[in-house]
Write a structure and sequence with these properties.
The protein is an alpha/beta fold and about 575 residues long. It is built from 12 helices and 31 strands. The strands form 9 sheets. Strands 10-9-15-11-12-13-14 form a 7-stranded mixed β-sheet, sandwiched between helices. A 5-stranded mixed β-sheet has the order 24-31-30-26-28, with helices on one face. Strands 5-6-7-18 form a 4-stranded parallel β-sheet.
């Protein structure tokens, strides 16, 4: 890449991009009254851990984020004695000994530092997770109960709801002439409003409908504006479904879901003189249901170790307001000359620092807790249902989300301070896990940065890793000599061992297991655990017996220990491959 060009970027942790300021001010940062983006989401902004101190390490440059820089920064943060590491980055998956974030996080874990990472923005497809090492806390994204509605009003009298953070000159009160970008372009993918693709004579003074995909949402608006368009309606396609992400567009614009977009298009294509306008409604609170899992949030199963359930948890990651660099406009486009102190953006980059800050608060309340204990507290107290009793929804499907979407559930900070029991682990547990994966001494050396040889006389099992959740991968029985999976054959059995540590008062915890079907039998021994003192440990085993099911079948269940005051909950994901 050559040396850094200091006329284009700072050779320091100074933020030229906005992303680092946003994530840092979400994790920590004192209250700021009167914060807003152009009047949207106005109020007092504060970080999760308001009195924490932030050390920022720059690992991303114009040329990208290099593994060598990431690992160097993580090692420096360990040497600097940080308490929590917040990493809103990731991409792709590799074996843990080839993954620089996993290598850096192993050393951090050993020093008692919790590492919180983004799950990734590659959802809603399965196996789309990044950062899935078990010594990393992997965070997916959910929504808040706040929205920024901007309605599309058509010439046929119909209205469709969308979202926008546009603030500027409003559209005229009258309806405007309305055109589909695909019909106002000389290129084959004109519908996407790519740079230079629109014909000014066909869009000047008109409202333009662009399809979402390929290029940035805000860039599509800039393309419409450059061609003389008066405004833009951005329509989701099947890839994004009904998920709406608000943007601070450079011209009057709103984003609508796939269903609304299809209806608007059918009007556009059938009416000889289509017209439309956009009505901006500002900030709206009390949106229900909330939270829902964001469609972009990366999903399990864990492609590296199917026996470890990921993501771990979800936290707010859609339309999040936080600090912003003055070096760049809110859209990040070079043509955006606006400067703001706060910006509203979305991604698992935003959900990760929420959990990082909360982990810092828990660490302050319980300085003796390990990173595993803190993560366990966050996971076992997370919620998976609304106050109505309905399950948390996945916006990608409109149906209840699963542990492959939300992990243990949505973070609940107050409950996490008093979890009752925790699933604790130390470096020896993770070394045993690497032995169970049959890592060679040289692979363990790369990852754990020490000479370690697995004990040949010991039987290591991935199912013994003391994780607060359960992923149970069964093989589908093969029938006859042909290829393909069938549901024939006998059942399979897998046995998991877990150990709970008492971090609350003395008490007797009883177990309950809820499973939706008879095809999986779950047995816990013993069914009751008594604790008389602090830090006392008790073990139990869970045996999963499953009938053979067709390949790609998933069944989700839940295991809870309760003393009547605390509920220590664990998600269970049973899958057949």
């Amino acid at each position: 890449m050559g040396p850094i060009d200091e006329s284009k970027e700072s050779k320091s942790p100074r933020d030229d991009d906005g992303h680092g300021t946003h994530t840092a001010t979400t994790a920590a940062g004192s209250p700021v009254e009167g914060a807003s983006l152009f009047g949207y989401a106005s109020g007092t902004a504060r970080g999760m851990a308001t009195r924490a101190r932030v050390a920022a390490y720059k690992v991303c440059w114009m040329g990208g984020c290099f593994s060598s820089d990431i690992l160097a920064a993580m090692d420096k943060a360990v040497a600097d004695n940080v308490n929590v590491m917040s990493m809103s980055l990731g991409g792709g998956t590799a074996d843990y000994y080839r993954d620089s974030v996993a290598i850096g996080a192993f050393a951090a874990m050993e020093k008692g530092i919790l590492v919180s990472c983004s799950a990734g923005n590659a959802g809603p497809s399965s196996y789309s997770l990044s950062n899935n090492a078990p010594w990393i806390t992997t965070v997916g994204a959910g929504t808040l109960d706040r929205d920024f509605p901007a309605y599309v009003s058509l010439g046929n009298g119909k209205n469709y709801s969308g979202v926008s953070l546009y603030r500027g000159n409003a559209l005229p009160n009258s309806l405007l002439s309305f055109v589909y970008a695909g019909n106002a372009s000389n290129t084959t993918n004109g519908n996407l409003c790519m740079m230079g693709s629109l014909s000014p004579e066909k869009v000047a003074g008109k409202l333009v409908l662009c399809d979402r995909g390929v290029n940035a949402r805000v860039q599509k608006g800039a393309v419409v504006k450059a061609a003389g368009g008066a405004g833009m309606i951005l329509s989701n396609t099947a890839a994004n479904g009904e998920e709406l992400v608000a943007d601070a567009h450079l011209l009057p614009a709103t984003a609508v879901g796939e269903k609304s977009g299809d209806s608007i298009k059918s009007y556009l294509f059938s009416d000889p003189n289509p017209t439309a306008t956009i009505l901006f409604e500002g900030t709206k609170l009390g949106i229900q249901p909330s939270p829902v899992v964001a469609a972009f949030s990366s999903r399990g199963p864990n492609s590296i170790t199917p026996d470890v359930l990921k993501p771990d948890i979800i936290a707010p990651g859609v339309n999040i307001i936080a600090g912003w660099s003055r070096a760049v406009g809110p859209t990040g486009l070079a043509t955006d000359l606006r400067r703001v102190g706060f910006n509203i953006i979305s991604g698992t980059s935003m959900s990760c620092p929420h959990v990082s800050g909360l982990a810092g608060l828990i660490k302050a309340a319980h300085p003796e807790w390990s990173p595993s204990a803190i993560r366990s507290a966050l996971m076992t107290t997370a919620y998976t249902v609304y106050k109505t009793g309905e399950k948390i929804q996945d916006i990608a499907t409109g149906k209840p989300s699963t542990p492959f979407d939300h992990g243990a559930g949505h973070v609940d900070p107050v409950s996490a301070l008093d979890p009752g029991l925790v699933y604790d682990m130390n470096v020896d547990d993770y070394l045993g896990f690497l032995c169970a994966l049959e890592y060679t001494p040289s692979q363990i050396n790369i990852l754990a940065r020490r000479n370690f040889t697995c004990d040949a006389s010991k039987k290591y099992s991935v199912t013994d890793l003391n994780y607060p959740s359960f992923a149970v991968p069964f093989q589908t029985a093969q029938m006859g000599g042909g290829s393909g999976s069938t549901a024939g054959g006998g059942g399979s059995t897998l046995k998991y061992t877990r150990t709970l540590t008492n971090v609350g008062s003395a008490g007797t915890y009883k177990v309950t297991v809820t499973a939706p079907t008879e095809s999986i039998k779950i047995t816990v021994v013993p069914e009751s655990l008594g604790f008389t003192e602090l830090n006392e440990k008790k073990s139990y085993t869970v045996t999963f017996t499953g009938d053979s099911m067709p390949s790609n079948t998933n069944i989700f269940a839940r295991l809870e220990w309760s003393d009547g005051k605390h509920i220590v909950g664990s998600p269970i994901a049973v899958s057949w491959t």
